[in-house]
């Protein structure tokens, strides 16, 4: 294959697939960002469950985390994808509504990815919660702060610093895991590359191009991580 | 060698029959019918995992030696390798090697074609290369966290580079890196499910096939249960090795998470 044909394959516009790949990359970024927000919220709740003194809640969150950590992301994603449809149909049938509503693929992918993300994030949050030195908590209590004040004023602002490296790693994992959504035919980056390679019969070009775009996304994330870590450590930097 | 293979094959059949038979009275019909297929896939996953983690570890040792080497001709390619394999999704790597390279066909690949047309071999290759990059990074953490004074002392004793590596650096680095390495093995087990997208009938592949016939969601839960069993067994095995490696009264500094 000569270079000219590679350029025309990856060109923008009606003839090339460059714009389709970039559109896919944009969906990948959106998918990762929305899953991050949902996953962080869910992860905080789960961390609360693990740290809670109430045993049943403790047991429930632990079981959930063990399940997610020991099961392939791919399996969880498919389970959520097929399961959500079933749940919606059951609810509709229960209400006596005849519906052929299908859960949008984007929503299903967000649900699956954020469920996975939250289990790992909860471990990071738990570690960060416990990493704040006890002396500070005692000092805050001694100055007369209520438990809520101790949490909001002393613990939470510092948790960010301890949690950031772990969360940044999880973001990288999440960004790469979005590629699994290609299997449920969500039009993200890898799926676009698949469509392009099937209609041009040039899979090597398009999968390599997709790989290169993922590499750019992770490289940009790496720079952002570095900046954020410098910011979070200001006043503590050695 | 041939004997070993035969014994292993017999063991697989016996284990599958035995466990499926024992579970039959207490499990639903759906699982009873699918059980032999599940165990077929279970062993494919286990074989891929064991082979790729061992081969990947060996490559990782070579890569990390190149990565920490003072020669730029070694460290830059090693760094690039780690960067590319850690920076792209495993699914993309699998598809590049299987569908991408495979599309070149017999005329493009020549003697390599029999290798690249088999999903199992490409899966093994990709998992090995992928985990090698992650393990190399883990080992690098172990090596670079060692106190520099030890290396200087070893040099002062007149040890050569390979003696320092074998006697001083590696035995400590592997102990520091072991917990993180254990995590990576579990992650590799989960990641290996993706080989089902390149036609390999591993545990995930069998689960998807059985699901596509029955369209019963509980199939995924059975598959998940088997993966959890595998994760449990691995965790146990890794702990045993860790306990065996630990030197009494010589505790390692806690490696940062």
Q: What does the model show?
A:
The complex is a heterodimer of chains A (238) and B (257). Chain A has 238 residues and is mainly alpha-helical. Chain A contains nine helices and no strands. Chain A is flat. Chain B is an all-alpha fold. Chain B has a domain at 50-199: MetI-like (MetI-like fold). Helices cover 80% and strands 0% of the residues of chain B. Chain B contains eleven helices and no strands.
Topology:
The complex is a heterodimer of chains A (238) and B (257).
Chain A: H1 3-9, H2 18-51, H3 55-70, H4 73-94, H5 105-131, H6 134-142, H7 147-177, H8 189-200, H9 203-232
Chain B: H1 2-23, H2 29-67, H3 72-87, H4 90-102, H5 105-109, H6 113-116, H7 119-144, H8 148-156, H9 161-191, H10 203-214, H11 218-245
CATH architecture of the domain at 50-199 in chain B: Orthogonal Bundle
Shape of chain A: flat
* Through-space gap between termini of chain A: 53 Å
The CATH architecture name of chain A reads: Orthogonal Bundle
In terms of structural class, how would the helical and strand content of chain B be classed?
Answer: mainly alpha
Q: What spatial form of chain B do the alpha-carbon principal axes imply?
A: globular
Number of helices of chain A: 9
Q: Indicate the CATH class of the domain at 50-199 in chain B.
A: Mainly Alpha
The Rg value of chain B, from CA coordinates, equals 21 Å
Profile the largest sheet of chain B.
Answer: none
Q: What level of helicity do the residues of chain A show? A: over 70%
Kindly estimate the percentage of residues of chain A that lie in beta strands according to DSSP. Answer: under 5%
**Gyration radius of chain A, in Å:** 22 Å
